[in-house]
């Protein structure tokens, strides 16, 4: 890990269509100020510059995405535990697609380190703290070998200067997030469903329920096995292509997953077509209505149906 790859920089990156995304939640109150920062395309180079003196661990995530929700509190807790030995920089890929492109992100969450402006890939997906401590120890070792031994300056908490607290989440949304963090997908689904029962127009609850249902469907699946089986299946094989589309969307490949289901719709009829169409509409809820992938897929769906 002592030989990072080429320096990273946003200069020259293609500006992908920005997707409207919810605001990232503030770090936990137990996390000292300064250990966790939210990075945008405007502040990206500042963080790269900071990596010249302090190891930076970059978490590329998507607000509201299941594994991202699970990983975030773990990474915050580790940043606190390590006491400023590294800076945790969170990047919402939906709001900052150019940064995702620079790092060639294929799925979220993706975590990497930046040392002296150079990236070190670390891992993808959500993992327990016990699995991540050895990874972070290797990052610190690599940083030391490259002469990066600084620490994050932790700001003192001053009650008089503190910013107003973020408004609390609606109870059913908070209950759902708490359940997801506890790996209780059934409890999360029940909380989101409660919100929809109370307000059928609750878009946050609808999107959350769709995300939880997706997580439940892909639990226990082997992504490579599912995708290989789909590649060998007939275009109208619903049983093969529905789980493959789930895997693709769960890994952030919205366009691929949507296109797969539209392909099934084009060559099927009756119950098979209805199943593919229903799944596609469910997956649409996982992205903003005006996301380019959703807009294109809705247009293609209309053509496929009529």
UniProtKB/TrEMBL annotation:
Residues 17-141 form the Thioredoxin domain. The keyword Transcription does not apply. Signal peptide: none annotated. The keyword Flavoprotein does not apply. Pfam families: Thioredoxin, TPR_20. Keywords: Redox-active center. Belongs to the thioredoxin family. This is Putative thioredoxin. It comes from Ruania alba. The lineage of its organism: Bacteria, Bacillati, Actinomycetota, Actinomycetes, Micrococcales.
């Amino acid at each position: 890990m002592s030989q990072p790859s080429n320096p990273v920089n946003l200069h020259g990156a293609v500006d992908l269509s920005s997707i409207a995304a919810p605001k990232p939640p503030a770090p936990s109150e137990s996390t000292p100020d300064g250990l966790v920062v939210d990075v945008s395309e405007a502040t990206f180079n500042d963080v790269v510059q900071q990596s010249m003196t302090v190891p930076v661990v970059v978490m590329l995530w998507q607000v509201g995405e299941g594994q991202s929700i699970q990983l975030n509190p773990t990474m915050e807790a580790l940043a606190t535990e390590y006491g400023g030995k590294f800076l945790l920089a969170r990047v919402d890929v939906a709001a900052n697609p150019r940064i995702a492109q620079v790092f060639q992100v294929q799925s979220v969450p993706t975590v990497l380190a930046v040392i002296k402006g150079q990236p070190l890939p670390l891992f993808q997906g959500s993992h327990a703290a016990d699995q991540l401590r050895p990874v972070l120890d290797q990052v610190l070792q690599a940083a030391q070998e490259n002469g990066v031994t600084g620490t994050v300056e932790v700001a003192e908490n001053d009650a008089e200067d503190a910013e107003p607290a973020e408004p609390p989440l609606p109870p059913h949304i908070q209950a759902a997030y708490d359940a997801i963090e506890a790996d209780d997908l059934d409890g999360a689904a029940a909380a989101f469903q409660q919100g929809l029962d109370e307000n059928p127009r609750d878009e946050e609850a609808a999107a959350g329920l769709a995300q939880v249902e997706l997580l439940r469907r892909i639990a226990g699946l082997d992504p490579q096995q599912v995708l290989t089986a789909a590649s060998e299946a007939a275009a109208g094989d619903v049983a093969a292509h529905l789980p493959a589309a789930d895997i693709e969307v769960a890994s952030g490949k919205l366009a691929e997953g949507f296109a797969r289901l539209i392909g099934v719709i084009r060559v099927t009829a009756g119950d098979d077509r209805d199943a593919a169409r229903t799944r596609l509409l469910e997956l649409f809820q996982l992205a903003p209505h005006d996301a380019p992938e959703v807009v294109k897929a809705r247009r293609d769906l209309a053509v496929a149906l009529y």
